[in-house]
Design goal:
Layout: H1 3-22, E1 37-48, E2 51-59, E3 69-75, E4 82-88, E5 99-107, E6 110-120, E7 126-135, E8 141-148, E9 154-166, E10 169-178, E11 183-190, E12 197-204, E13 213-225, E14 228-238, E15 252-259, E16 264-267, E17 271-272, E18 280-286, E19 292-297, E20 315-316, E21 323-328, E22 331-336, E23 348-353, E24 360-361, E25 365-371, E26 375-379, E27 383-388, E28 391-397, E29 404-410, E30 415-421, E31 424-429, E32 434-439, E33 447-451, E34 455-462
Parallel strand pairs: 1-20
Antiparallel strand pairs: 1-2, 2-3, 3-4, 5-6, 6-7, 7-8, 9-10, 10-11, 11-12, 13-14, 14-15, 15-16, 15-17, 18-19, 19-21, 21-22, 23-34, 24-33, 25-30, 25-34, 26-27, 26-33, 27-28, 28-29, 30-31, 31-32
Bound molecules: beta-D-fructofuranose.
């Protein structure tokens, strides 16, 4: 499709779709979501020239994984985001099947995007190019074209470049699949963002003593926090265990140390990033004051996405809340960013037995709970959290089969911080040692009801809207 035709079609889709999305009771009040169509991965998250930019995989034309553009938001405070013109559209031969995920850096004062140009062929095969684009003086992005072709020994599944600066070089982690169809993460180096040297594989299924873990490791991200260098990635094809890796595709972190000279990453085992029903393809960046933030797609690519009721309102999926990462004893922890506290309205308290607690309006809500457990938290009969001494269990009916399905977090949960929006619940456990993120589609006004004989202490706030 020619660029001008695509742009006209997107404009029409937004004009027709946006009123339908914004009038949907499930459209978020304070999370980022598409104004129409399908959103997936966060891309190009960066603090640049005094503002934050967050790009995203967006198909404005329909609720389907096709024709991905880079949508673009900008924010001064990480709370209020302004829509920007579309940054990248799949209008070149080398990105004609989609401008896939990637990252952003500041290169000599210029906001520069590194993304995957995806090309699918009629016979079902594909190739991929890692491409550059630079912001111009009008605020738009000029494509500079491909800078990396598929390296020898890999299939066309090579994508999702995440680039950072370390000392005198740019480094990139890149998701790849070798010709034995195993997932790999490659490390590359450059001194000008244009010519890249492939330093080799630093992680992947069957490397470093991992059990068979997948045919593709999407969306890698790498950064140092405290004493550890973390690799976040999304291994596809991880064998589900009884209580872990139950989503159709996993998102996990590894902790270790990276030897930049040897291109060797010595790391421990895979750890699930989020134990909820929807979490995938997160990306991190540094704030102006040195915090490492993460935002994820609160979705999972699976067969059930299209059963979500928002599709009838011409939109699907949202981002997670923004989270600050910390490293505690080699463990990657996530907590909601402090900025979100500005959304809190009047503080309320409860202390006593769960059974005696009043129902709480859950439409836009933050709750902090302390207890020794054996409590049930029922979100509008649609999502039910069973809090036991050594386990959290989240239950939700499948939108396809109607059967109850479960997700688990194993361990002693002493303290929960729960953030609700119109169709999402994010449960932070023990100050971020664990997280369970899930979408749900309650009738509104949704109520949270507590059950159980255990004593608990609760502080809670309803949250202001900040997106619409
Ligand atoms: C992850 C992913 C990426 C790809 C993008 C396409 O959700 O599959 O690997 O770049 O989505 O939208």
């Amino acid at each position: 499709m020619a660029s001008s035709t695509r742009l006209a079609a997107i404009l029409q889709a937004v004009m027709q779709g946006m009123p339908k999305a914004l009038s949907d009771s499930h459209y978020p009040g304070w999370h980022l979501a598409p104004v129409t169509g399908l959103l997936n991965d966060p891309n190009g998250f960066i603090h640049f020239d005094g503002e934050y930019h967050l790009f995203y995989q967006w198909n404005a034309l329909e609720c389907a994984h096709q024709q991905k553009c880079w949508g673009h938001w900008r924010s001064a405070d990480l709370l209020h985001w302004q829509h920007q013109p579309i940054a990248l559209m799949p209008d070149e031969e080398y990105d004609r099947s989609g401008c896939y995920s990637g990252s952003a850096v500041e290169d000599n004062g210029v906001l520069t995007l590194i993304y995957t140009g995806n090309v699918k062929f009629d016979d079902g095969s594909r190739t991929a190019w890692q491409c550059l684009a630079q912001q111009n003086s009008a605020g738009g992005f000029d494509k500079l074209g491909p800078v990396i072709a598929v390296p020898e020994g890999y299939t066309g599944h090579v994508r999702d470049p995440k680039v950072w600066r370390h000392e005198d070089y740019w480094y990139m982690v890149l998701a790849a699949q070798n010709t034995q169809l195993q997932g790999r993460v490659l490390l590359l180096r450059s001194d000008n963002l244009r010519e890249w040297q492939n330093l080799g594989e630093i992680a992947g299924s069957e490397l470093g003593g991992l059990d068979a873990a997948g045919y593709m490791w999407e969306c890698p991200d790498m950064f140092t926090l405290g004493d550890s260098t973390y690799l976040i990635c999304c291994p596809q094809g991880v064998v589900p265990e009884e209580k872990r890796y139950l989503n159709s595709h996993a998102c996990a972190w590894l902790s270790g140390s990276l030897d930049y000279q040897q291109a060797a990453y010595l790391h421990g085992p895979l750890n699930e990033m989020d134990a909820g029903f929807e979490f995938y393809a997160p990306q991190t960046t540094m704030t102006a004051d040195g915090r490492r933030l993460l935002v994820g797609w609160m979705g999972t690519p699976d067969g059930e996405e299209m059963a979500q009721p928002t599709v009838a309102h011409h939109w699907i999926h949202q981002m997670t809340c923004l989270r600050e990462l910390s490293s505690r004893n080699g463990r990657l922890c996530q907590q909601p960013i402090a900025e979100l506290q500005a959304l809190r309205e009047r503080e309320l308290h409860y202390q006593g037995r769960a059974d005696d607690a009043p129902p709480i309006a859950a439409q836009r809500l933050e709750v902090e709970l302390e207890s020794l457990g054996d409590i049930e938290l029922n979100f509008a009969d649609t999502l039910i959290l069973t809090w036991q001494q050594n386990e959290l269990r989240l239950a939700r009916r499948s939108l396809v089969s109607g059967q109850w399905t479960y997700r688990y977090w194993t361990g002693a949960a002493r303290r929960l911080q729960i953030l609700c929006d119109h169709s999402s619940v994010e449960i932070f456990i023990n100050d971020g040692e664990g997280v369970m993120s899930s979408r749900y589609f309650p009738d509104h006004p949704a109520m949270l009801t507590l059950r159980g004989r255990a004593e608990l202490q609760a502080r809670y706030w309803s949250l202001r809207r900040c997106m619409v």
